[in-house]
Amino acid sequence: MASHVSLSKSFFGNQMALEYLSLFLLAGNVMSAGDARTEPTVLMVDINHFRTEQVERGRATAKDDIANGRQAFYLGTCSFPSPASKAEVRRIERTKRGLMRIEVKPREYDACNDVIEPAVRIEAFVEGYNDVSGAELSRRHGENWYQKVGQ
């Protein structure tokens, strides 16, 4: 039977959590003192709290930006656009110009590169930031503000 390891949030309570988890998994089997079993260790980690922390961090940053007169909105772009995505690139450029017309700073993040490890953290931060920023933009410019700036 496989041994089980439980890791608490206090162990993984910082932004290096996934890096620690990777190192732990690379280490292979973990056995307690005197344990002669050779079954693999089953490691179950709920990473939702890592994501939740980043969403909350994004929300707090957006609230601070709004309170200090720095309205912004994140747009997902691709670091390696293909010819098929030229229309998407044009749409993003229109949206950036539209955001600048209403005095909102467009910020970009790489929404296509799933290879980089921090992608989960970045997407969670952006989700939180845009939730708050989008609500403020809806309050100021109406519910369909995003359709308007993308025209």
What report would you give on this structure?
This protein has 151 residues and is mostly helical. The chain folds into two domains: 3-43, no CATH class; 50-149, no CATH class. It is built from five helices and four strands. Helix 1 links the parallel strand 1 and strand 2.
What is the fold's blueprint, element by element?
Layout: E1 3-5, H1 17-26, E2 41-43, H2 48-67, E3 72-77, H3 86-101, E4 105-110, H4 119-141, H5 145-149
Parallel strand pairs: 1-2, 3-4
Helix pairs in contact: 2-4
Structure keywords:
single chain, 151 residues, mainly alpha, two-stranded parallel sheet, 49% helix
Strands side by side in the biggest sheet: 1-2
Radius of gyration: 21 Å
Q: How many domains is the backbone divided into?
A: 2
Order of helices and strands: EHEHEHEHH
Number of helices: 5
* Strand segment count: 4
Determine the structural class based on helices, strands and strand pairing: mainly alpha
> Can you give the helix content as a percent range?
40-55%
Shape: flat
The major sheet is characterized as: 2 strands, parallel
Strand content: 5-15%
Mean of residue pLDDT values: 75
The unreliable regions are: 1-16
Distance from first to last alpha carbon: 60 Å
